[in-house]
Write a structure and sequence with these properties.
Helices cover 0% and strands 35% of the residues. It is mainly β. The chain starts with a strand and ends with a strand.
């Protein structure tokens, strides 16, 4: 499974001053959203340094189709270069904006080189670059408000926090349901000055990340907290998104490779 986190805000302002007067352009109408037939665009969320000197490039995507999930196998229509085409990217694309879906690790001497993620969906090609531009450095393990991401683990595995990989192997007979169990914990602290919401400190969602075939999930079953010093739940439920009290768009996403 993969684990990802991002918190990226982009502000863009522009103005035009004419020689005689300020010219104000008329707002263009927004293109209506479509249920299907539209493109998918990769999203470069930023990058962060790893303890071993390498770097992790954080990527998500925007599926412009409101109701169309798309499966795009790794290959000419779903490739990351150089070093690809397979760099651990998803092959199943959910509708809408999916934040911080996975990371690609690049070497310490990556320098000014760039990765490009090419996606071809519904006959439309998009290509998005990603680099180690200093303006795009992010902090996925702790925010300015000192909020930290949830921690996740399998029953017999080590705990991870932030965009670090976690995986396990399970098998079953075709047609038989398979139980997936995860333990998730969070300190339940909110952003400074923010009242704790009435929702649980951690919310998990499940979806397919990559691979052939259809995957369906029954409703996840959650136990009561098992540690009163923080919020900690064993969750029975691979892509899993764990969202804490942070704002929308700041999440961890766990997906099977």
């Amino acid at each position: 499974m993969q684990v990802r986190r991002s918190s990226v805000i982009i502000l863009w302002m522009a103005g035009v001053l004419g020689s005689a007067a300020l010219v104000q352009a008329q707002s263009l109408p927004l293109e209506p959203r479509h249920d299907a037939g539209q493109s998918i665009t990769a999203a470069f969320e930023g990058w962060f340094a790893n303890q071993d000197g390498t770097y992790s490039i954080l990527l998500g995507y925007y599926n412009r189709n409101r109701k169309q999930d798309l499966d795009i196998p790794v290959g000419p229509n779903n490739r990351i270069e150089p070093g690809g085409p397979d760099q651990g990217q998803p092959t199943h694309f959910l509708p809408g904006r999916q934040w911080g879906v996975f990371t690609v690790t690049v070497p310490k001497d990556f320098g000014i080189r760039k990765l490009t993620w090419t996606l071809v969906a519904n006959g439309q090609t998009t290509v998005v670059p990603a680099s180690l531009d200093p303006l795009w450095e992010v902090s996925p393990f702790i925010e300015a408000s000192e909020n930290t991401p949830p921690t996740i683990r399998f029953e017999d595995g080590a705990s991870v926090q932030g965009p670090s990989p976690i995986s396990t192997s399970l098998s079953t007979i075709m047609g038989n349901p398979l139980t997936l169990a995860l333990w998730v914990s969070d300190d339940a602290k909110t952003i400074l000055g923010m009242q704790p919401p009435k929702t649980p400190p951690v919310i998990l969602t499940w979806s397919k990340f990559r691979g052939p075939g259809e995957v369906t999930f029954a409703d996840a079953k959650s136990a009561s907290p098992v540690n009163t010093s923080c919020a900690s739940w064993p969750t029975i439920g691979p892509e899993t998104a764990a969202t804490d009290f942070s704002a929308a768009g700041r999440m961890l996403r766990y997906g099977s490779p």
